[in-house]
Design goal:
This protein has helices at 54-66, 170-187, 227-246, 292-300, 306-317, 321-327, 331-344, 347-364, 376-388, 393-406, 410-417, 425-438, 440-447, 453-464, 471-486, and strands at residues 4-15, 70-71, 74-75, 78-81, 91-94, 102-111, 114-127, 131-135, 139-143, 150-156, 199-209, 219-222, 254-259, 264-270, 280-281, 288-289. The chain is an alpha+beta fold. A nine-stranded mixed β-sheet has the order 2-6-7-10-1-11-12-13-14. The protein binds zinc ion (ZN).
């Protein structure tokens, strides 16, 4: 049987964080009552003229620089003509051909320890469309609030030059998107919210016999609004195409919709081609010329990007590759970690709490780190209570959760709930003796050399003190008492 290799292209649209729309002064904010953020320009009324948004152009150039792209000295806009009710002008202002704002970039990803520099074909600028609502009784309504919101498109290169790669698996597609979104958020050009449609991803997938240079017929996927959907959608499409070819069938070039609930794709429409859009230069907008000094100024003012931050975390805090990777996927998470690590000193301990308990609680409650009630100092104060022996590691977990929900300080919670660790020797010895008396067989095992059984007894003592015993002391006392028995 022929073995196939997938080739995956990624088209990512990102809504840019600007005050106003791309070609008019209307608010670009998300939401609003339908058709309250509109004007003659973004409703396509005759006689209105567009004016390009300088901030949006700057956002695209900064993104392009962060993605190692070359900036095109003179870049122009085009009209992409097609008729659809959510597009009031009858065309979308976009960029076509060899004059997008930037070309020839790359983005490094790492999957299972294997690094790849994914080639990027272009980063360009266009405008968003309105939104259609299909309601009962064959009626539809349209909201033009999103019409004309600046949209950046980032497209990967399907014929990478030497030294660069392309995406060849579902895992890599997901990782590419994770890294791309983390860069957009670090640059503060997009809020990165896939579920609100701020980032939309349309992968195209084809497969070809391993080692072959020729591309197979590709299909494009729509409606992927989470990282998980991207992974599952791409994986499904690769497997579907393999099945079709193995059965002697043919792949049709088409756009398919991903159904997240059903876990499968459906045909939406057969693929349209570029000439269907009758692209031509937009006559109402002047060409954009980028001065070298301006580009250099922007390059110098780029913030520390996730990849560089990861390298610094490896060096400065001695974290593992994995930990540094997780902590730098979001700027807020990295800042939280770094501020606590600096204050506390033991970076590894801080990383464990941030990546473990904090991330778990943030995910479980769908809370963004900047909206959570816990601060880096809260975590540090709690770690210090553990160091002093006031609370055990087990109690700390409960305290942490309480801090997360209430924003109270660890000391306050410990006092309120009477969670102070039992360090009183006689009290602890009494419990230890009782557990030893209740488990004669285990004690014999330990005396017989089965050291691991000691952990069971430690567990029993912790259980009977509801986690409030100091595990170090428990260990010590158990060993001492059992040794005395053996003599
Ligand atoms: Zn407008």
């Amino acid at each position: 049987m022929v073995e196939y290799e997938p080739v995956i292209g990624m088209e990512v649209h990102a809504e840019l964080l600007t005050q106003s729309k791309m070609f008019c002064g209307c608010s670009a904010a998300f939401g609003g009552a339908p058709n309250t953020r509109v004007c003659p320009v973004c409703m396509g009324l005759p006689g209105s003229l567009p004016v390009a948004n300088g901030k949006a152009i700057e956002h695209v150039v900064r993104t392009a620089l962060a993605l190692n792209c070359q900036i095109t000295p003179v870049s122009i806009f085009h009209r992409k003509n097609y008729y659809y009710p959510d597009l009031p002008k009858g065309y979308q202002i976009s960029q076509y051909g060899d004059t997008p704002i930037s070309t020839h970039g790359w983005l490094e990803i790492s999957v299972n320890g294997a690094k790849k520099k994914i080639a990027i074909n272009r980063v360009h600028l266009e405008e968003d469309t309105g939104k259609l609502f299909h309601i009962e009784g064959n009626k539809s309504e349209v909201d033009y609030n999103r019409s004309g919101v600046p949209l950046m498109e980032i497209v990967t290169e399907n014929q990478p030059p030497p030294g660069l790669d392309q995406i060849t698996s579902a895992e890599e597609s997901r990782e590419y998107l994770v890294q791309l979104i983390s860069i957009l958020m670090a640059l503060d050009v997009c809020d990165g919210k896939m579920e609100e449609g701020s980032v939309r991803c349309e992968p195209n997938i084809s497969i070809r016999p391993k080692g072959s240079e020729k591309f197979g017929v590709k299909t494009e996927l729509k409606n992927l609004n989470s990282l998980r959907a991207v992974y599952r959608g791409v994986q499904y499409e690769v497997e579907r195409q393999e099945k079709v070819l193995h059965e002697g069938g043919k792949i049709t070039q088409e756009t398919r919709r991903w159904d997240d609930e059903a876990g499968r794709t459906y045909v939406m429409r057969t693929k349209e081609f570029a000439h269907d859009y009758r692209y031509f230069p937009e006559p109402d907008l002047v060409p954009m010329r980028f001065a070298d000094e301006w580009i250099e100024e922007l390059r110098k003012s780029l913030p520390e990007l996730p990849a560089a931050k990861k390298q610094r975390f490896l060096r400065q805090y001695g974290l593992s590759e994995y930990d540094a990777g997780v902590l730098t996927t979001s700027l807020d998470l990295a800042d939280f970690f770094e501020s606590a690590a600096k204050e506390y000193g033991d970076a590894k301990a801080v990383a464990n709490w941030v990546m473990g308990d904090l991330l778990k609680l943030l995910n479980a409650t769908s809370t963004a780190i900047r909206d959570s009630k816990i601060s880096p100092s809260h975590l540090v104060l709690m770690l210090m209570l553990m160091d002093k022996g006031t609370i055990s590691g087990k109690i700390a977990k409960a305290v942490f959760e309480e801090m997360f929900h209430t924003g109270k300080r660890a000391e306050e919670i410990v006092k309120e709930k009477g969670l102070v660790q039992i360090t009183d020797e006689s009290a602890l010895l009494a419990v230890v003796d009782q557990i030893i008396a209740e488990n004669p067989k285990i004690v014999d095992d330990i005396l017989g050399g089965k050291d691991k059984s000691l952990m069971f007894l430690v567990g029993q003592v912790m259980k009977s003190t509801r986690g409030q015993a100091n595990p170090k002391l428990v260990n010590e006392f158990l060993k001492k008492r059992i040794e005395e028995k053996g003599v």
